[in-house]
Amino acid sequence: METIQSDQLGEVVVERGSVIHFADGIPGFEALHDYLLVEVAEVAPFEWLQSMDDPALAFAVVDPKVIYEGYASNLGRGDLAAVGLVEEADAVVRVILTLSDNPAEITANLQAPLVLNRRDGRGCQLLLTRAPYDIRYPVMQRLSA
Amino acid sequence: MLILTRKSGQTIVIGGGIQVKVLEIRGKQVRLGIDAAADVSVYRGELFETIQAENRRAASEPKGGLAGLAGRVRGEE
Predict the structure, then answer these.
(1) Does the distance separating the beta carbons of A99 and B64 come in below 8 Å?
(2) How far is it, in rounded angstroms, from Cα A88 to Cα A37?
């Protein structure tokens, strides 16, 4: 049973299906390529994208549609091809959250979503140049009451 | 850093599959054409650096607060 260490989550069992490989890494962390997408019930719908190489590196991520109704990444052919996909419907999209001890200050980077191919585990971060989404979208402030 | 000097109309080939062409030089601006496969991402440097910086922030900010926000998103609080 393969496990990895996570400062955030402790010891995590690697299930082959949730390993994501970023061929170019994630901008800012170009040397690290392998991550585990981990669901944790107490923070659902948010998930952790845990680096398999660095226990201290983990990103909180979420499906952007959950926090922004109508979010459209409008993935083009090239965007999908970057992770070996043809149909946008097969893409799993997540956005990275910048956290804070104050939930009201947590923001989501809607301009640079992660595009994941769950079938072969490829992922990349896409910089949307066409849609003017916030890099720091204030999640709690925009939730409907 | 590899430094090359090009005139308008000249090209640079990177990795055999990416071509950069100087299309026009006008005043202080250079117009560049980039030819690459559709799955190769090409970004303005300042945008890429902005995303790098935000990713680094996301990775280093204190990790508290998420459970509280999750509760709000689920409609529990």
Answers:
(1) yes
(2) 20
Work out whether strand A19-22 and strand A122-125 pair parallel, antiparallel, or are unpaired.
parallel
- ipTM of predicted assembly, 2 dp: 0.91
User: What part of A 13-42 touches B (C-beta under 8 Å)?
Assistant: 26-29, 42
- Closest partner residue to B51 (CB to CB) among A8, A58, A127 is A127
For chain A, the domains span: 2-143
Q: DSSP for chain B, please give it.
A: -------TT-EEEETTTEEEEEEEEETTEEEEEEE--TTS----HHHHHHHHHHHHHHHHS--TTHHHHHHHHHT--
Cα-based distances in Å from B30 to B7, B20, B44: 10, 12, 13
Q: What's the pLDDT tens digit per position in B24-60?
A: 999 999 999 999 998 888 999 999 999 999 999 999 9
Give the CATH number of domain A2-143: 2.30.290.10
